[in-house]
Amino acid sequence: MMVTDWAHLPYDLLYMISTKLSDISDFIRFSAVCNSWRSSAAPADHAPRLPWILDNDGGFLVKADVRLCPSFSNKIYTIRVPHAYNMLLSGPSDCFLLNSKKPISLLNPFTGNEIPLPPLRRQTKKLYPIIFVGNRLRSEDPLVVLTFDVKSCDHILGVLRQGDDEWLVISLRVSFGIATLLGSFMYYKGHLYAHAQFDRHTLVIDPTSGKTVFTIRTTDRLNNNHDVKEYMMESDEKLLRVIKRIENYQIESFEIYQLDGPEKGYRWTRIWDINDQMLFLESYSGFSVKSTNFHGLRGNCIYFFHYQRTTNPLHPRARLCRYDLGNNEIRILPYPSNRAGAWIIPCIH
């Protein structure tokens, strides 16, 4: 019987296999087989990665090791990142999580690589990234964060472009409501979009001057019987606004609006499906990936965390769910934690 010498498989074949591994844990196992397999695996040329979930106590305040959960699994991996202790991490992110504890920085928990950021010179609470933070952004895109000024009670947008030594600070008054703007921001094609939930209009802001360029009125109406959460994100090069409606701690529905313009006069238009896209939502923001990049996953779906109303400590408080826009059905997915997490797409380079 012929025994296959796996260490001497053709380099081109090994390289082709390594570029198809969408779960980074499979990629690491592949690289660990032997020197031949490791040399053929190029991290920079890997397949699109499945998102993972950051799981830590205290609103992602790291008090021990960093705990990460691969999506759609019941596993938790513990990663030792010594200098991450006491960092306040948030997502969603592409490779790097945002640490909003001073001094603020970006952290890749898979490699321990940390990028220092200039201080945001306002007395604020936790920072929330409102675009997909990471190193695969278009080079012209700035890092944009949202926070709340504890003195003036303003919402604060911080804009940092590559090479800047300080943040551009944009203040928005509390007429929007203290909590209504969280999740309703996005940087898209050179402008910042801020949607006011109760006023039902969207401000379009110039990120270089902080001035409002124009306002987009909306026609959708809110039901006072529902708790509503809104998100903005870019999906397939389009700007989407996602509305999650909740009643008595139960998800009622999702609505999606797409920004049309300028040829149609800039307006939000209701859409009923997102084709092969998958939307990933967390507390205040979200992002989109194509399902066709991942075998076995379903497009036209929204993945999100939902808190259950329970007094039993043995029952999970947060569940990972999938909402199918095709049939309006919700399915609970495997998830080994009882806390909502922060999404991160992992990389090791």
TrEMBL record:
Residues 6-39 form the F-box domain. Pfam families: Beta-prop_KIB1-4, F-box. Residues 74-306 form the KIB1-4 beta-propeller domain. PANTHER family: F-BOX/KELCH-REPEAT PROTEIN-RELATED (PTHR33110), OS09G0565350 PROTEIN (PTHR33110:SF134). This is F-box domain-containing protein.
